[in-house]
Amino acid sequence: MAQHKTLCTARPALVKQIVCAEEGNVTVIQGRVMPSPRENRVVQTGGGTCACPLCQLHLDIKHTDVLILSQFLRSDGCLLPRRVSGVCRLQQRRVQQLVAMAQKAGLMPNLAPSSSKRDPRRRFGYKKFNKYYDESTIRDVQPFSSAMSAR
User: How many domains would you assign to the chain?
Assistant: First the structure.
């Protein structure tokens, strides 16, 4: 059975304090919600639930952010489909480009497809060398709402 990874921006679980009170013959047990001590460290979302997580959080992901990009990959190194990852069409294309750039740069050797498991030094010509990308080669993807308003 394959393991499923999800990118989630759901609300954290609430911690409750159990309070027992006895009033005559009646014992009242209550669960009171306690504020989290890490509340100031929680990522604040934009409030809209229909946007994809990357658009909603306004993340500027680069090809060097391997830990973030690995959340969008299966265990064999292939990209998860949009219906599983929950990202929009534009961000799916951007993640696809960034993962390809990271794999070609040699930043994700353990998460590359099986066809690329050959020894890099035995590859032909320029393909045996790692690739280095400038940040300006990554085209910015506009959020869906601003792309629609530009029309």
Answer: 1
Residue 108 falls within a domain, yes or no?
yes
Q: Which amino acid, residue 117?
A: K
Q: Is 21 contained in some domain?
A: no
pLDDT, the chain, mean: 74
Sign of CA dihedral 70, 99, 92, 113: negative
DSSP per-residue codes, 121-132: GGS-GGGGS---
Which range marks the domain in which residue 103 is found?
Answer: 52-114
Whether 107 is covered by a domain: the verdict is: yes
Between 134 and 99, name the one with better pLDDT: 99
* Tens digits of residue pLDDT in 64-79: 899 999 999 988 888 8
CA atoms of 12 and 34, how far apart (whole Å): 12
